[in-house]
Structures are given as C-alpha cells and as structure tokens.
Specification:
By secondary structure, the protein is α+β, with helices and mostly antiparallel strands. Helices cover 41% and strands 16% of the residues. The chain is built from 5 helices and 7 strands. The protein has helices at residues 2-17, 46-53, 85-94, 147-154, 163-207, and strands at residues 34-38, 59-66, 73-81, 98-99, 102-103, 105-108, 125-128. A 5-stranded antiparallel β-sheet has the order 6-1-3-2-7. A hairpin with a 2-residue loop joins strand 4 (98-99) and strand 5. The longest helix has 45 residues, at 163-207. The chain is flat and about 80 Å long. The chain starts with a helix and ends with a helix.
Length: 210
C-alpha cells in the first residue's frame, strides 16, 4: 500500500507543479513498455488481466506468475504494451484502483527480462498476446469466413484458452485495416477529382476572350 500511495503522491505533485513532458518521473522508463501489476485477484486469468489493461493500449505480452506446485496465480503479473506511452496511462489511471475488492499496484518496470526457457516454471504461462500480422488479401475476409478458418489464417490455436480473445482482436484489426485502406483510396480519388476540376477550370479560363 505504501508503494501505491507514493506513486499517487508523485503524480499529484507533478500535476500541481505543471511538470511537462520530458521532466516527469515517467520519462525515466521511456525505453520500457512493461508494467508490473500487483494486487490481482487470485482467480483472474491472463485474458481477464488483458481485458482490464487493454483500455489504455494494445497488450502484446503478459506473464501472470503462478505457483510452481499448484499452478494458481500469485496475484501479480508483468505486462507489455505495444506502445510505451500506454504504460504511463496505465500507471496513472490504474495504480490504486479497486478490482474485485483489491487495490491494484501498477508501476513501471525498467529492465524486465523474459524467463529463460530452461528456468521457466512448469505452471507459469508467458503469453504473446499480439495478433498475427495481417496478410495481403486477409482484410475484409475475416467476417466472411467461419471462425475456424479465420483462426487457421491468423495462426490461432483453437485449443488455446484465449483463442476467442485472439480471434476477436484479429477481426477488430482486420476491420480497422480495411477502413484505413478504404479511406486511403477515397483520399486518392478526392485528390484526383480536385486536380481534374482545377485543370478544367484553368483550361476554361485560358480559352476565355480577353
């Protein structure tokens, strides 16, 4: 609890002083996209933790530490964001927040190292939560295929407990990519139309009598 209060005190102090970007204590961790999460309810799964923290950015990796013998959660995890700036939002907004009656401790991690394959505990799960990159031709097809075909295309194991979560994330990214591609095409067409109108207008003026 002392660590939670200390982080809150520092953040409040920076707000009062109007500390800008580059001078904040967060800036010390600008090279690390990891956060430490403590105080987690013991019955939460990796997917549950990702759902809570994904409101501040794309989660690409999670290590929910579990007991070597029982496989039960120890109540803390290490979580990696796709964008380092998401760590600042998570620390500022979720440190001290109550989750199922427990106060979360959320803090930056400066030099996190993934467990080595030989040292990893049998019951410990380190999950790569990042969806597979979209392949050319995959955009727009996700909603047309059945879920099994989409999971095969995305490289998602149907037996994975988090398969449904990965599938939902893959489809969401596919729709976003499709919209961006459509927007780019529309912008190009608009530019061509404006250019053609300008040329026609200029041609008309050049033919007008003096």
């Amino acid at each position: 609890m002392n660590a939670i209060q200390e982080i809150r005190r520092i953040n409040a102090s920076e707000l009062r002083q109007g500390v800008g970007q580059g001078a904040s204590w967060h800036d010390e961790y600008r090279d690390s996209a990891y956060v430490y999460v403590g105080g987690l309810p013991f019955d939460l799964t990796e997917g549950d933790v990702i759902c809570v923290f994904s409101q501040f950015g794309e989660v690409v990796n999670i290590n929910l530490v579990r007991d070597k013998e029982t496989g039960k959660s120890k109540g803390y995890a290490f979580l990696q964001y796709e964008d380092q700036r998401s760590t600042v939002l998570a620390v500022d907004n979720l440190n001290g927040a109550k989750l199922l009656g427990r106060a979360l401790r959320v803090d930056h991690v400066k030099n996190y190292r993934q467990p080595k394959q030989g040292d990893e505990l049998p019951a410990e799960r380190v999950l790569n939560a990042a969806p597979q990159p979209l392949q050319p031709g995959a955009v727009g097809e996700a909603d047309d295929d059945d879920d099994e075909a989409v999971m095969q295309k995305a490289g998602i194991d149907p037996e994975d407990p988090m398969a449904a979560y990965y599938l939902k994330k893959y489809k969401r990214r596919a729709r976003r990519a499709e919209k961006e591609a459509a927007g780019s095409g529309s912008s190009a067409r608009d530019r061509r139309h404006r250019r053609d109108r300008r040329r026609r207008a200029e041609g008309g003026r050049s033919r007008s009598p003096a």
